[in-house]
UniProtKB/TrEMBL annotation:
It comes from the Bacteria. This is tRNA-(Ms[2]io[6]A)-hydroxylase. GO terms for biological process: tRNA modification. GO terms for molecular function: tRNA 2-(methylsulfanyl)-N(6)-isopentenyladenosine(37) hydroxylase activity. SUPFAM superfamilies: Ferritin-like. It holds the Pfam family MiaE. It comes from Lutibacter oceani.
Length: 193
């Protein structure tokens, strides 16, 4: 369903489980960034009322997810700590050229967001199926559904605002590029890396 061209090596779950504190910290920061992305779309493209309405809801949802992850950190006596650079996202954001029309910029940002949500969904599924901590397994199973919905939301908006055939080609090209990135990732205790 997610269209990912290169699935995460299932052994990533072993790395994640051995470093679950780091996964939770990274996950908390990912939720903050997701809320920030939705906020940024509102600020950058306020003329798209339907987009604004959905992004307002998404900001609330992402912040509620941050709160849930932060509560897991507190329950485990783990401090949130500083954000770390997300190597995956930094590499991904180099795919589309800068500039272009406002519509092109919007479509590119929506496609990036869709792919990040798709990869998060896939990783949450792996965590939900592979970690021994049943409380966290259920936690990630529940969040996996939200990530799938976010992926669909962003991809549908890209297809709404851009020409469908062109957007689908860009989406497929981005998926191919992401698969190349993923060949060098999946060895660290981060949600995307």
């Amino acid at each position: 369903m997610l269209g990912l061209k290169l699935p995460t090596d299932p052994r990533w779950v072993n790395i994640a489980e051995k470093n679950i504190d780091e996964i939770l910290i990274d996950h908390a920061h990912c939720e903050l960034k997701a809320a920030s992305t939705a906020n940024s779309l509102i600020m950058s493209f306020p003329e798209y009322s339907e987009l604004v309405t959905e992004m307002v809801s998404l900001v609330k949802e992402e912040m509620s997810h941050f709160k849930l992850v932060h509560e897991k950190l507190l329950a485990r006596n783990i401090k949130l700590g500083q954000d770390r650079k997300d190597l995956y996202v930094n590499k991904l954001l180099k795919f589309f050229p800068k500039g272009g029309s406002r519509t092109t910029q919007l479509v590119h940002r929506l496609l990036y967001a869709a792919l990040i949500e798709a990869r998060s969904c896939e990783r949450f599924r792996l965590l939900s199926e592979g970690i021994k901590d049943q409380e966290l397994a259920k936690f990630y199973r529940d969040l996996m559904v939200s990530e799938a919905n976010h992926y669909v939301l962003f991809l549908n908006f890209a297809r709404t605002f851009g020409e469908r055939k062109e957007v689908d080609k860009k989406w497929n090209d981005l998926l191919e590029f992401e698969a190349e990135i993923m060949k060098d990732l999946g060895t660290t205790e981060t949600i995307h890396g």
